[in-house]
Amino acid sequence: xxxxxxxxxxxxxxxxxxxxxxxxxxxxxxxxxxxxxxxxxxxxxxxxxxxxxxxxxxxxxxxxxxxxxxxxxxxxxxxxxxxxxxxxxxxxxxxxxxxxxxxxxxxxxxxxxxxxxxxxxxxxxxxxxxxxxxxxxxxxxxxxxxxxxxxxxxxxxxxxxxxxxxxxxxxxxxxxxxxxxxxxxxxxxxxxxxxxxxxxxxxxxxxxxxxxxxxxxxxxxxxxxxxxx
Length: 229
Prior knowledge:
The protein has one domain (5-226). Helix content is 79%, strand content 0%. The protein has 9 helices and no strands. The protein has helices at residues 5-18, 21-45, 55-84, 88-91, 98-130, 137-167, 171-185, 191-194, 202-226.
């Protein structure tokens, strides 16, 4: 049975992003830099008993501060570039819903960046084990929550990048929107807790984040369907 056009599109996007130099940096260079930073900074400043930061925590902080921004920039710049090169003129005449293009790019970028986050966290757990801090049930639970937080942040940033990539007409505008607007979108799900409307529950904020991702992707798909390509 032949694969659907949407599945083929997703496969092409995954292969394209996975082979990009940006993903090489995220998968290889960034974890190495994070390990070096942990050895130099965290090892010196947090070496006293009771104040030791785990490598997994340090790696999650480094990845969460960079991975979301990189993911948003990747998808936004890619959408603007391909539209300016009239790539979508050929795609829209094929039996592929326009929204499928947005979803394929979102899943490809999110998947690639999420893999980088998982690799970094596993590397941090391995370093902790070598340092005499073997994983316990509590530490694994905390690491799992950190992984969920990171992937949720990446999903929010990627969805925001997709929306800005559809709305912007130039790469410069898309980059400005990602850097100055997209970085604050991750705070939106936590606003009800800050305002005292809803309790600041971890899983509630995560659920609100997933809902916001769906809303932004829906808006991006709707705008892309109505855009003149």
